[in-house]
Give the backbone structure.
Amino acid sequence: MSLDDVVLAAHATLAGADSAPGVWVAPGRINLIGEHTDYNDGFVLPFALPQAAHLAASAREDDQIRIVSVDLKERFETRLTDLAPNNDGWHSYLAGVFWALREAGYQVGGADLALASDVPIGAGLSSSAAIECAVVAALCDLYHLDIAPMERAKLARVTENAYVGAPTGLMDQAASTLCTLDHALFMDCRTLAVEQIPMDLNAAAGPNGGYAILVIDTMTRHSHADGEYGSRRAACEEACRILGVPALRDVSATGLPAALAQLPTAIAPRVRHIVTENQRVLDACEALRGGDLTRLGALMTASHASMRDDYEITEVSVDAAVETALAQGALGARMTGGGFGGCVLALARLDQLAAIAEAVTREFAERGFHTPVTFVARAESGAHRV
Ligand code: GLA
């Protein structure tokens, strides 16, 4: 049974067989490069995954919100008038969207929702953004709200920031909403200008065949990640105060040495990561457009080193996965997402993927890490109605 059928069946149990729901899907994402740059007004380059949140939804005449999670086998009910920011569990990511839309002045009523998702939780693949974006898409259609895609992403982010209380940037919600099939989404997080860049990893195929991105989920889930995320963000804000700039976006690569000289030693490496990472995203776009996968791979690996040494958001299992993938001949490898565990991407030839997956699995077993889960990434479409 497909996840669409699963949520339709769950919705029928919740709301009755004649409730005539629609189904909306919003994907998780992988960030190809550009980590922690979004809240610094910088650049990011994510693409959407086949793994997605699937939501069956129907409008109600009253102000009740009834939600069932198929994955957790849990049910939650509330009223629109009772909504207030909270982080009480999975349902906050759905109920918070009603709140965000109403705070922004949109007329939404109650709804019956059934959710199932195959985006792994805590893997750095934006399982929460997928849920938020699916609910935004559903409510826009059910309540005939004419909201442009980037505005939808911003409303989903309001849910995450102001309702659930996680101080994240806009990348995940923008990716889940705006990505298109076979493209990576370049986004300037200051102007919110976007460009769809074709992700044709086979265009550069040599005699040994094409390339692909192998995702290695280390299964490491860091419980302190939320606090670490906030502290990195605070360090960036502190650096801006000292440097007298609105955002670290305003520190250029050429201006970096002078900026670093003004900063305390605890903060300087954080700034170096952001400034060099922004440049790497621009270079990666150029490499992708020109089919230069060797350069793209080198940029990915440099990004990982910067996250490990300067931003200090990696940990032993992700570092081991990157090193093992590179030792097996990957063109590049890096952790993706907020950090402290989650997934590593390896850009490699198709005929190397199995050996990389095996080598990482062996290495993890020897070192007593979790058994990793691997899959080949495909760039999918953003949120849509089925
Ligand atoms: C999380 C946040 C994003 C972004 C990344 C790091 O996924 O939700 O906004 O900051 O971490 O790049």
Notes: The chain has two domains: 3-193, 199-377. Residues 268-289 form the longest helix (22 residues). The mean pLDDT is 96.
